[in-house]
Design brief:
two-stranded antiparallel ribbon; 33% helix; alpha+beta; 177 residues; single chain
Amino acid sequence: MRGAAFLARMDGSSEFTSHQGKSTIVVDIGGTTTDAGVLLPSGFPRQAAAFIEIGGVRTNFSMADVQSIGLGGGSRVKIHQTETGDAVTVGPDSVGHNLTRDAKVFGGDVLTATDVVVADGTVEIGENVRVADISSDVIQKSRDAIKRLLERIVDKNENFSRRCNAALSRRWKYHRS
């Protein structure tokens, strides 16, 4: 979160004008998870509620409010045959750190989110000939599933960010008058 603040110049290291006074949603898509949180106008992450559960233990530590979902480059793409055609799901299970061994583009036999974006031509990694047989229907349904997952996690944060920006705007108007 603080790295994103630095890259967006929200950390006070330089003149910051484009997002001044607004919260910003940060989304980090990794190998096994996608993490999303809100940077406040100060450049610091929104803090979580008083009690956070870590590994099933309730704690009262101050920490960033970051939501995580099981979507990453190693997320498994599963195709299920239905009466109406193929249904596709993505994640939450993943090949994890074995991506370069298990994903099709690297010679493995597991269809992953990485394979889908390579087959779609969005990304060039591994050997794209290994995913040339993935149908355009499966590619599109996989991309739609990924999009839905991302929209859900961003919407959760966007609703909070919108409420926060409205409150800041009201406070700014009050202080100016």
